[in-house]
Amino acid sequence: MKADDYFAIQNLINSYPYLLDRGDFDAVGQLFKHADVISGGTLMASKSAEAVAEAFRSWVITYEDGTPRTRHCLANLCIIPEGEDRALVKSYVMVFQQTDAVPLQPVIGGDYADRVQKVDGEWRIIERQMGNNQFGHLEGHGRDLGIFNSLSVN
After folding, report:
1. Is 123 exposed, middle or buried (0-12, 13-18, 19+ CB in 10 A)?
2. DSSP class of residue 67?
3. Residue 47 carries which DSSP code?
4. Residues 6+ apart with CB under 8 A from 146
5. How many domains does the chain have?
6. Is position 58 within any domain?
7. Average pLDDT, the chain
8. How many of the other CB atoms lie within 10 Å of CB of 138?
9. Buried-state track 49-78, b at ≥16 Cβ within 10 A, e below 16
């Protein structure tokens, strides 16, 4: 892998918080259209932009401005090459939220493990495992945590 690959992977992974925090679930779906997306050991969606977008739309609460009023902060990003065209990317995530009813506070902490692959010169996410294991007050952020069990996997 070359330095340009590291930068491209870093930008790919770091695009997720910006898309999600502005409530652009369709763009989140496009980001993961080649991926299996797993949250808490449950497969949310498999290689379907539409299924990913619907999973996030079904769980994340949005407000009048169309956003979830969050900031997803990624940290400790490590890119571990697995050959010239594959890598494992590990990172920590901390989600902060503020609404009219709730002051600024952390609501989720955890980690992401992403597998990425370079196809036709472009890096893409082929698997995301969300290992969120620290939870604050989620009533303003997400609906029933069991929602993913009722979603169809495409």
Report:
1. buried
2. S
3. S
4. none
5. 1
6. yes
7. 91
8. 15
9. bebbbbbbebbbeeeeeeebbbbbebeebe
Which of 36, 18, 38 is CA-nearest to residue 28?
18
Rounded to two decimals, what is the model's pTM? 0.88
| Residue in the block written with tokens 């590990």 | 90
CATH number of the domain at 43, please.
Answer: 3.10.450.50
Question: What tens digit of pLDDT does each residue of 93-145 get?
Answer: 999 999 999 899 999 999 999 999 999 999 999 999 999 888 888 888 887 65
Q: Could you tell me the residue range of the domain that residue 77 belongs to?
A: 3-143
48: in domain = yes
CA distance 31 to 154: 16
73's tokens: 């902060």
Residue 129 is assigned to a structural domain of this protein: yes
**What whole-number distance in Å separates Cα of residue 70 and Cα of residue 96?**
5
Residues 6+ apart with CB under 8 A from 125: 12, 13, 31, 32, 34, 35, 114, 115, 116
**Model confidence band, residue 23 (pLDDT cutoffs 50, 70, 90):** very high
In angstroms, the CA 74 to CA 78 distance is 11
Do strands 36-39 and 122-130 pair parallel, antiparallel, or not at all (unpaired)? parallel
Answer yes or no: is 150 within a domain. Answer: no
